[in-house]
Amino acid sequence: MTAIQIKEGVYWIGVNDRTTDLFEGLWPITQEGVSYNSYFIDDEKTAIIDLTKSFKGDEYFDQINELTDLSQIDYVVVNHMEPDHSGLLRTLRRIAPHVTLVGSEKTRQMLEDFFSIKENIKVVKEGDTLNLGKRTLKFFSTPFVHWPETIMTYETSHRILFSCDAFGSYGAIGGAIFDDECKNFEFYKKEALRYYSNIVASFSAPVLKAIEKLQDVPVEVIAPSHGLIWRKDPGQIVSLYKKWAEYASGETEPGISLIYGSMYGNTELALNAVAQGISQRGVPVQIFDAARTHVSYILPSIWTQKGVMVGAPTYEVSLFPPVAGVMHMAALKHIRYKKGAYFGSYGWSGGALRNLKKIVEPLKWEWLETLEFVGSPTKEDLHQAEKLGEKLAEAVQKES
Ligand code: FEO
After folding, report:
1. How far is the CA of 84 from the centre of ligand 1 (A)?
2. Which residues contact 21 (CB under 8 A, 6 or more apart)?
3. Do 234 and 352 belong together in one domain?
4. Which end of the chain has fewer CB atoms at under 10 Å, N or C?
5. 226 alpha carbon – ligand 1 mean position (Å)
6. Domain co-membership, 265 together with 315
7. CATH number at residue 227
8. 242 and 286 share one domain
9. pLDDT-based confidence at 400, cuts 50/70/90?
10. pLDDT, tens digit, for every residue of 28-55?
11. pLDDT tens for residues 106-157?
């Protein structure tokens, strides 16, 4: 893509990534892609806000060279050190050796730790400004959105907030870079939630803190480092992020995330009865086969829904591994305050339920009744499974 003007003297520069399979080496983006948004400010002094992953360097640097002499860039603002935004830093410094890197004190340390860079660093603190000529940049400290060094940069003339990971999403840019041009909004909304639950959710308290800090700052454009630029309705993505961040305290949606695995269909027989019980109570249920669905696509459901129903057989005196993997990730992401229930088959000794409770023990979920059965579920087991679904649905309804 070529550079796109956002406002006079302010440009989107960046690259679409449609070939990386796993974001952070972990989260699938094969179908969706991702964009690494970077920004260029053309003033008496020139500045780039965040770079991109070390990827498509020629395309990226060509965009800048169309606007200015790349070797004479004055500043690179490093809002965030994660390599999807800093990967081209060393290459840029070889091209523009006199460039000054701007970031927080922690960024200064990370520049040394990650890239052995010790010179030409300008450390900025909360509220500091940098005058570029006609335009001024102001910096806000927003630690842990997403790493501890993170800052956000605010361009005061056009009131543009360069928010880096905050307000970002998965999804390569499909031609339309602005929210008002996008005809595929539901895709970005869905991918923003998946991105939030995968990448940002653990840091929900700092997200709320950052939103509160910026609430009185007049923002006309939100320019994140992934996904759409919000110029028509920046409040929309802020509201979504605020809502998702508040889910961390347990005020979630009145539905149930049903995560299951089944080796030979016995647990799956009970799953159908459980789902029937939930549906009979009019509660929405989202069903995931953990062995066939990457946890990246399950996390948005666990994050947003009040109830979590887990269905899994015992496997070697433990929880069926694909389901255990999902639960370990829920624990890693600190997904607390859920109402949980469990059902599953075992052959000769249980163990799945014990293992499950141990995995999510730090999350302090409220466990309702559980149902374990030997081998294939009997008619009575299926009746109990249906009741189990109803009970979790009722508990979820009661909280809503
Ligand atoms: Fe987009 Fe935390 O990096």
Report:
1. 6
2. 28, 29, 30
3. no
4. C
5. 8
6. yes
7. 3.60.15.10
8. no
9. confident
10. 999 999 999 999 999 999 999 999 999 9
11. 999 999 999 999 999 999 999 999 999 999 999 999 999 999 999 999 999 9
pLDDT, one tens digit per residue, over 148-184 is: 999 999 999 999 999 999 999 999 999 899 999 999 9
pLDDT tens digits for 211-269? 999 999 999 999 999 999 999 999 999 999 999 999 999 889 999 999 999 999 999 99
Residue ranges around ligand 1 (CB below 6 Å): 80, 82, 84-85, 146, 165, 225-226
Find the 148 Cα to ligand 1 centroid distance in Å.
Answer: 12
User: Is residue 318, in this structure, part of any structural domain at all?
Assistant: yes
Q: How many separate domains does the chain show?
A: 2
Choose one of 248, 264, 284: the last residue of a domain: 248
Helix and strand counts by DSSP (H, E) for the chain: 12, 19
Atom of ligand 1 nearest to the CA of 168: 1
Ligand 1: distance of its center to the CA of 146 in Å?
A: 7
CA nearest ligand 1 atom 3, residue: 82
With 0.85 as the threshold, say if the pTM is over it.
Answer: yes
Residues 235 and 280 in one domain: no
150 Cα nearest atom in ligand 1: 2
**400 assigned to some structural domain:** no
Residues spanned by the domain of 207:
4-248
CA of 19 to the centre of ligand 1 (A): 18
Q: What is the atom index within ligand 1 of the atom nearest the CA of 199?
A: 2
Q: What is the CATH number of the domain that holds 260?
A: 3.40.50.360
Residues 292 and 264 sit within 8 Å (Cβ to Cβ): no
Same domain? For 268 and 241 the reply is no
Does one domain contain both 54 and 184?
yes
Percent helix, strand and coil across the chain, each to the nearest 5: 40, 25, 35
Q: How far apart are CA 295 and CA 199, in angstroms?
A: 12
Residue nearest to atom 1 of ligand 1 (CA): 165
Decide: 258 and 275 in contact? Cβ < 8 Å: yes
Alpha carbon of 102 to ligand 1 centroid (Å):
17
Query: Which atom of ligand 1 lies at the shortest distance from residue 147's CA?
Result: 2
- Please report whether residue 310 resides in a domain: yes
DSSP string, 348-370: S---HHHHHHHHHGGGT-EEEEE
Ligand 1 atom with minimal separation from the 225 CA:
1
3-state secondary structure of 138: strand
Percent of the chain with pLDDT over 70: 100
Same domain, 305 and 339: yes
Q: Is 372 inside any structural domain?
A: yes
Q: Do residues 188 and 303 share a domain? A: no
- Structure token pair of residue 358: 């141990």
Q: pLDDT digit string (tens) for 291-336?
A: 999 999 999 999 999 999 999 999 999 999 999 999 999 999 999 9
